[in-house]
Amino acid sequence: MLGVTDLPTYLAGLVLIVLLPGPNSLYVLSVAARRGVRSGYTAAAGVWCGDTVLMVLSAAGVASLLQANDLLFGIVKFVGAGYLTWLAIGMLRAAWSMWRARHERSADGPDDASAADPARGGERPFRRAFVISLLNPKAILFMIAFFVQFVDPAYAYPALSFAVLGGCLQVASMLYLSVLIFTGTHLAAAFRRRKRLSAGATSAAGALFLGFAVKLSLSSA
């Protein structure tokens, strides 16, 4: 089928891959919980665009270049780890502000929501999600290592095969992130009522992002 071999096996593996937690899905869930469905989908769009760029780069052979060049891989790796660390620090600072303000009450609902999310005004969900997706060389290497197993080398149009495989990945990602977004909106009401819960969740998200940064910095090509 359009140069794709063993499509059922690919789809089965794809489900497992999409369900694995990572910085992209965690960030989308965090945005949806703090800012609602619309902002959640804005962040998800950043993920989808970033993944599309990675798939194009993988099909173009950039993954092989990163794998062969230790210096280039190291630069991309540590830039990505540094960006995740910066995001984690921002989340932890926001959580600390929530803890300090947890006993304060506001009569105005919108002001209270703003206080619960100090970074809300300057946050750009699409841009952040897009950068998180791009600054992950392991994702590029994984895509090329996974996709190439299901592309028929004898097929005359391998780019079309990559497009089919990538389209399946994007559909699965859309469905999964949609579930996270609507789950996050249910959490949002609880977060707005309970600043301690909101601070704890933000702290946990910050800690997970630090873990992703450490994992990325220790990875190898």
From TrEMBL:
Leader sequence residues: none
InterPro entries: LeuE-type (IPR001123)
Compartment(s) of residence: Cell membrane
Keywords: Cell membrane, Membrane, Transmembrane, Transmembrane helix
Highest taxon listed in the record's lineage: Bacteria
Membrane topology, from the record: Multi-pass membrane protein
Transmembrane segments: 12-33, 45-66, 72-96, 129-150, 162-185, 197-218
Family of the protein in this entry: Belongs to the Rht family.
Protein name in the entry: Leucine efflux protein LeuE
UniProt source species: Streptomyces katsurahamanus
